[in-house]
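User: Please predict the structure of the protein below. I'd like the answer in structure-token form so I can feed it into my own downstream comparison script.

Assistant: Understood. Taking the following sequence of 481 residues as input:
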Amino acid sequence: MIEGLGSTLNRPGVRILSDDQCRVIHSTALDILWRTGVKVGHPEAIEMLRAAGCRVDEDSTVRIPAGLVDEALLRAPNRVTIFDRTGNRAMHLEGTNAYFGTHIGYSAIWDHQTHQRRPFCLADAADLARLTDALPYIDFMVTSGIASDVPRHQTACVLFREVVKNTVKPIVFCATTDETFEAGLEMARQVAGGAEELRRRPFILHYSEPISPLQHSHDGLARLLACAEAGIPLVYTPMLMLGATAPATEAGLLAVCVAEELSGLVIAQLKQNGAPFVFGGIATTMDMSTQICSYGAPELNRMCAALTDMAHHYDLPMYGTAGCSDSKCCDGQAVIEMALSLAASFLSGANLIHDVGLMEFATAASFEALVIADQIIELVRASWRPIETNEETLAADLIDRVGPGGHFLAEEHTLRHFRDVLYSPLLDRRRHDAWAADGEHSFDYRVTEKVKAILQKHRPVPLEEKVLRRLDGVTLPAGNE
């Protein structure tokens, strides 16, 4: 009898920053907020900051004292629970819990039927949502993209309506105007059963951004304030590039990014004490030879891991970026870049990891890339899952009974546990003759066939007819962006 072993619950992790480095970056960010300040473009936010003791210059530059940041960090919840649209708990954003979701900001898609790049359209959003709904390791959906067949001033809310019909999984909702935000929020209320039920069991998060370096726009803050008031979890994520919108050094970029995040957090907590806030940052390099914002660079992985260290330092949930590529098609480069970033984000302990399946430096989506990423996530989770050490798993009595030179194939213990290892139909382990007899199909072929099978067969849990009627009855924005 072996006693006192229990289970090994902690998975291995990686850190980029030491505790001392986190403290130095935090101190530098506080110095930036007081000495340099941030531009604030919303009158209500300026007045709240002024009333809380900030210094406001004539050009709307606001200088925030360190004490106000400390208060905001104390007020912000360290755990944000997100539900699915059926009301079940789906994601606990805290600690090193890792959840993976789709992409943001694209205008093109690689057609899985023709294997040609074409403009993204509304029907693709429905298909992407159904694909997300079916894939076991894709945990949430981001409603973004520029649909070529939808008026620009309605795109955000129309995409949200299409997505919520086609997946039960949580949704990160993006909007570009007050009108599209309010229409999308009203749709979410109709699905949830009212504003209070949505506040109590949020199945959406909203995504908004400051403008780097050190600017908070009117539109970004309008959504921040609205989310704080409505109790909608907010992802407030700077997007910075080394040498372009941030210093060319990684430490300098981190200091700017943290200053932007902390000032956004202060405004959210002044609006509503305890407003759910997700720390984050999309930080990478500008490729100086092409002027693109690289989504496959190792610097993106390093900076996301470092920002995750800062989020853990503050005990705040973290919005990460992974599973994306600069490649123009779903090829070997894409797989390398997706795999490295997914493993890095998982091991760093980021919580809400987005942009899975995004191609061509955030301009094109790919269904095949999403399926490949889902497979990579399964492999990453299997590679670093905890090892249980107890009497059953150590099997000392069995080892003693089989003894030197024996085998375990016929043992009841093997029958109980041989399925504990990973078997995936996408990963072919057959011998060559069996593979050849079955058509010599490549990995790419199997991925495309899986996409087709899901889109042909998978049907998500439908919304009730009365909910559909209310959803379709929400008034769409009439003006232009």
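That's the full token string. The radius of gyration is 24 Å.
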